[in-house]
Structure formats: structure tokens, C-alpha cells
Design a protein that fits this description.
- With about 190 residues, this protein is of the alpha/beta class.
- It has helices spanning about 5-10, 15-25, 40-50, 60-65, 70-75, 110-120, 150-155, and strands spanning about 30-35, 50-55, 75-80, 90-95, 120-130, 160-170, 175-190.
- The chain contains 7 helices and 7 strands.
- A 7-stranded mixed sheet has the order 3-2-1-4-5-7-6, with helices on both faces.
- α6 (about 110-120) links the parallel β4 (about 90-95) and β5.
- Bound molecules: S-adenosylmethionine.
- The site of S-adenosylmethionine has 16 residues, from loops.
Length: about 190
């Protein structure tokens, strides 16, 4: 369970650049799911861009999701408090999951990826990230750290359009120093 402080610290940051660029280049996207929405920075960005979003999180983050939105933008967001393994997902053109799938145990991931695949519309997209093995959290028992070929295998039903591997020294959402090793992925249902 993530501490409340994490949500307060992360609320209000800009949506991830990879998502901003993708939405600019893909105006056909009308429906999305944010899996592990946290404080909802990406959920709000999508709602502000006229996209209907289902935001999913195991924690009750509802009070963060609607900040600074107009009434019309608020109406575009539905929140489901549920774990990924149990949630029933609606159909969507886009599913995003940032800094959330690495917190799922490895053995549970194939089923969740399958769920993502079936809830995407034809030609739908998945944008997500995973931790690599040079991450300073490597070894944490409940987290998942993957090699490039393991990600390719996990996403074998998809066409991977982009896989950017990034390493950087930085901080966590609770201001602890950390080495990040992240794979950023854009994949298409095919
Ligand atoms: C590190 S936060 C990232 C939040 C947000 N996506 C972001 O990038 O700021 C991970 C979020 O995923 C949620 N989460 C992790 N594992 C989950 C699971 N198995 N089912 C549902 N939510 C989960 C956590 O409750 C948390 O809010």
C-alpha cells in the first residue's frame, strides 16, 4: 500500500511527455483507461483532451482525480477502486499504465496483459513502463524487473512500436534518492 504522502507529492505534475506527444499525434483516441492512476495527472490530462477515462487504482485516490477540472471534464472520468487482477475493464482505444505494472508480482502479469489486450479496441494502443534490472529497487520481492526480451515476450500479442530504455539518478515520489532503470513502451493491438 502506497503512503498518502506519495499522492500529495505527485499531484499536480505535468502528464508524462510520452503521453502528451502520443495524444497530439493520435486525435482519433476517444476512450482510455489509466491503470494505477495514482494522483491522476495522466487521467486529468486525458479528460482535458476530450477523452473519456476509466481510472483504476487499488487505493481510494478519488479526491485527487477531479482537481482543477471543469464540470464537463469531471464527467469524462470514471474511477474504479480495484486491483488489476480483479477489475473488469471496459473497451478502450488506449490503455496507459505508468509506474504501476512493476508493482505487480511477475507471475500475475501475463493475465493482466491479456486483460489489457482484450479490453482494447481493434488498433488500440498500450503505453506503459516496466522496471529494468539495473533499477536500485531490483530484488524487491513483490516488484517485477524485466529484461528487454522478457517484455517482448510478455507483449507478444502486440506490435511494439517503441521501447525506450532509460537510466537516471533521481528521486522517488516520497523524495528518496533512487537509480531508475525504466523501459517505456508504446504497443499496438494487432
Ligand atoms: C507509483 S504509483 C504511480 C501512479 C501514477 N500512474 C503515476 O505515474 O504517477 C502506482 C499506483 O498503482 C497502484 N497499483 C499498484 N499495483 C496495483 C494493483 N495490483 N492493482 C491496482 N492498483 C495498483 C497503486 O495503488 C498506486 O496508486
Amino acid at each position: 500500500m502506497i503512503e498518502k504522502e506519495y499522492y500529495k507529492n505527485t499531484a499536480g505534475r505535468k502528464a508524462q511527455g510520452i503521453l502528451q506527444k502520443f495524444i497530439k499525434n493520435n486525435p482519433q483516441i476517444k476512450t482510455a483507461i489509466d491503470l494505477g492512476c495514482g494522483s491522476g495527472n495522466e487521467t486529468r490530462f486525458l479528460a482535458k483532451n476530450s477523452i473519456s477515462v476509466t481510472a483504476v487504482d487499488a487505493s481510494d485516490v478519488s479526491k485527487f482525480l477531479y482537481e482543477d477540472l471543469t464540470e464537463d471534464e469531471k464527467k469524462r472520468i470514471s474511477f474504479i477502486q480495484e486491483r488489476f487482477s480483479n477489475v473488469e475493464l471496459p473497451k478502450a482505444d488506449l490503455i496507459i499504465s505508468f509506474y504501476a505494472l512493476p508493482f505487480v508480482r511477475k507471475e500475475l502479469l501475463p493475465k493482466i496483459i491479456k486483460k489489457i489486450y482484450y479490453s482494447l479496441n481493434e488498433d488500440g494502443y498500450l503505453i506503459c513502463n516496466f522496471f529494468g534490472k539495473k533499477d536500485s529497487w531490483y530484488g524487491f520481492e513483490k516488484h517485477t524487473f524485466l529484461e528487454k526480451d522478457e517484455i517482448e515476450d510478455l507483449l507478444k500479442e502486440f506490435k511494439i512500436l517503441k521501447m525506450n530504455e532509460i537510466e537516471r539518478d533521481g528521486e522517488t515520489g516520497t523524495h528518496e534518492k533512487k537509480h531508475w532503470h525504466i523501459y517505456w513502451i508504446i504497443a499496438k493491438k494487432c
